[in-house]
Design brief:
Blueprint: H1 19-38, H2 44-66, H3 71-96, H4 106-117
C-alpha cells in the first residue's frame, strides 16, 4: 500500500458507465436540443414533438441501462420533456386559434347559417 493512502482506506472507483450508454445519453441530449429549437414554431412543432418523444425514450433507456446517472442523459431527458410540453401546448393553441382553422366549404357554411337562423 502506498504511503500516501491512510491504512484501511481503498481508493474509490468511479462508477464506470458502458460507452454505448454514454452515447445514447449524448444522442438524447442532441435530439432534445433539436426538439426544443422548433417546439414553438408553428407546423415545425409537430416534428419537434416527434423528436422530443425520441429524445425522451433515448434518455430513459440511457438512465435505466447505465447503472449510473450521466449528465447528458439527465439533461437530454429533461430538455426532451420540456420540448414535448411546449410542442403540445403550441399545437393546442394553434388548433383553437381561428386564423389557423380550415374554412368550411360553401355547403357547410349554408347549413351552419340555417342552423343558426332557426
Amino acid at each position: 500500500m502506498p504511503a500516501s493512502e491512510p491504512s484501511g482506506v481503498t481508493p474509490t472507483q468511479s462508477a464506470s458507465v458502458p460507452p454505448r450508454f454514454k452515447r445514447v445519453g449524448v444522442a438524447s441530449l442532441v435530439v432534445g436540443i433539436l426538439a426544443i429549437l422548433g417546439a414553438a414554431i408553428p407546423l415545425v412543432n409537430i416534428i419537434s414533438g416527434i423528436l422530443a418523444i425520441a429524445g425522451l425514450i433515448l434518455g430513459i433507456i440511457s438512465l435505466t441501462r447505465a447503472g449510473a446517472r450521466t449528465g447528458p442523459a439527465i439533461a437530454g431527458t429533461v430538455i426532451s420533456s420540456v420540448a414535448l410540453a411546449i410542442s403540445i401546448i403550441t399545437t393546442v393553441i394553434l388548433w383553437n386559434y381561428p386564423c389557423c382553422q380550415i374554412p368550411p366549404r360553401e355547403e357547410e357554411a349554408i347549413a351552419i347559417a340555417q342552423i343558426q337562423d332557426a
